[in-house]
From TrEMBL:
Residues 1-31 form the signal peptide. PANTHER family: ACROSIN-RELATED, HYALIN. This is Serine protease. It comes from the Bacteria. It comes from Micromonospora sicca. GO terms for molecular function: serine-type endopeptidase activity. Keywords: Disulfide bond, Hydrolase, Protease, Serine protease, Signal.
């Protein structure tokens, strides 16, 4: 039942082609025939510069710019902690084919200590060179913002089983209580470590290829603050199966400590 929200196999290959500008994806077919608008499930296209902290990663995941050299993503998107020069981060654009896109290689990965596929789903990727001119996304270090309505964004599939998107897409989803989410998922949720969001009726959600991306909202000062990391779910936008996200506030001190060890 549980499925990570990553791209694999042919979808990951398609991601590389989209980023390089060598592949055009057709819009998914609508249920009643014709063509559906190619949105992250239930979302709309983001404007250039709207979410400057968004990062696309070459293995088919998303992320958020934590600092000028660090990207916060999901543990299940990366390998073990250590030197890693295989990841390319694309930043600064909503269109992955834009000639103004910024691309930077990784040089190190830090995966949450004790990660074994069940909880602790966060990681930091250090970039080989710092990125300038882009806003970073601060993380919540208290539970004060772990409620209300959240924003999700990514280049993942617009429908369950769909393909990588060329343009950054966005949507909003409401908080779902731990008790409701755990009842829906048969006790699979780790309440202290995970936070759920979505509509009981479905229709709006993150999907394949959105793993590692941020879920965020406005703080008391009207600045964006990250409360979740796209982790897993049963399908995409299915009724009574909200998206499950790593609860950033629970891991905030560990993330900050890891970031400091990687150079801040």
């Amino acid at each position: 039942m549980v499925r990570w929200r990553t791209l694999t196999g042919l979808l990951a290959a398609a991601l590389a082609a989209v980023t390089a500008g060598s592949l055009t994806l057709a819009a998914p077919a609508a249920a009643g025939g014709g063509t559906a608008t190619p949105y992250v499930v239930g979302g709309t296209r983001a404007a250039q510069g709207e979410f400057p902290f968004m990062v696309r990663l070459s293995m088919g995941c998303g992320g958020a710019l934590y600092s000028s050299r660090l990207v916060l993503t999901a543990a299940h998107c990366v390998g073990a902690t250590g030197t890693n020069t295989s990841i390319t981060a694309t930043l600064g654009v909503v269109d992955l084919q834009s000639p103004s896109r910024i691309t930077v290689r990784s040089n190190y990965v830090y995966r949450a200590p004790g990660y074994n596929g069940n909880g602790k789903d966060w990681a930091l990727i250090r970039l080989a060179t710092p990125v300038t001119g882009l806003s970073t996304l601060k993380i919540a270090n208290t539970t004060a913002y772990d409620n209300g309505t959240f924003t999700i964004a990514g280049w993942g599939a617009a429908r369950e089983g769909g393909g990588q998107q060329r343009y950054l897409l966005k949507a909003t989803v409401p908080f779902v209580s731990d008790s409701t989410c755990n009842a829906n998922y048969g006790g699979e949720i780790i309440p202290a470590e995970e936070i759920c969001a979505g509509y009981a009726s479905g229709g709006v959600d993150t999907c394949q290829g959105d793993s590692g991306g941020p879920m965020f909202r406005r703080d008391a000062g009207n600045a964006w603050i990250q409360v979740g990391i796209v982790s897993w779910g049963n399908g995409c936008a299915r009724p009574n199966y909200p998206g499950v996200y790593t609860q950033v506030s629970y891991f905030a001190s560990a993330i900050a400590s890891a970031a400091a060890s990687l150079g801040g």
